Amino acid sequence: MADSRLSEKRITAFLDSIKGEAEAIYLLGDILDYWYEYKYVVPRGYVRFFGKLAELADAGIKIVWLKGNHDIWIFDYLPRELGIEVRDGHIIEQIAGKTFFLSHGDGDGKLEPGFRFIRALFRSPVCQWLFSGIHPRWTVPFAYNWSARSRKGGEMRGIPDARLLDNLREFVVKYHKSHPEVDYFIFGHVHILSREEIDKGCEMIVLGEWIRTFSYAVMGPEGLQLKKFTSEF
Asked: Which of 14, 104, 130, 172 is deepest in the core (most CB within 10 A)?
C-alpha cells in the first residue's frame, strides 16, 4: 500500500507539472495494475490520480487512454466521469505534423499461443460477465497476485522483455513497409526504455515504465524527446 501511494503521488505530481503546457496526453496502457469496472461500484484507490485526470480534462487537455493487458476492463465509468477517451488497440494520430502509431503493444506482432488464448479470454464478453458475478473479495486478491507474478515472470508466460522488444521490432518493420507515412511507432507494454531507427525518418520508441525509470516522451518544437520525471513531490 505504501508503494502504491508513493507511485500515485509521483504520477499526480508529474501530471500537475505539465498541465500548463500539454495540449494532449496519451496513456499507453497498464496505467493501473488491475481494474475491473463493475456496473454499480468501483474499486477502491486511485482517487488522487483520477482527480488529476479529471482536472486536466476539464481544463481542455485531450487525454487518450489506450487499454493495456492489466487495465483492459475499463468500460464507460472512467470516460464518463473523467472526460477522457478510452481506446482498445492501436490508433494513428497526427501530432505536430508527424504521423504517430500509438499502441500498448500487447496485441501487436506474433503472440505466443498461451498469451493469445488468455488475451482472447479476458476480452470475451461472456467471460467478463461471468467474472463480474464473483464477489470482489475473491477476484481482487486473485487479480493482484496474478499481476505480481506477471511482472516477475515475463507477462504471464516467462518471456523476457528482450524477446517482447524483438517481437515489436519485427512487427514495426513489416507494418512500415505498407504504411511508410508513419514517422513514429510508440509502445508501452515492454518494461524497457528504448529508441531506435527503423528506417530513414521512422523510429520505434518503447516508453519503459514508472516503477523505476519514470520515463515518458514529449513531442514539441524540438522534436520527439525522451525524458524522465525526477522532480521532488
From this structure: 104
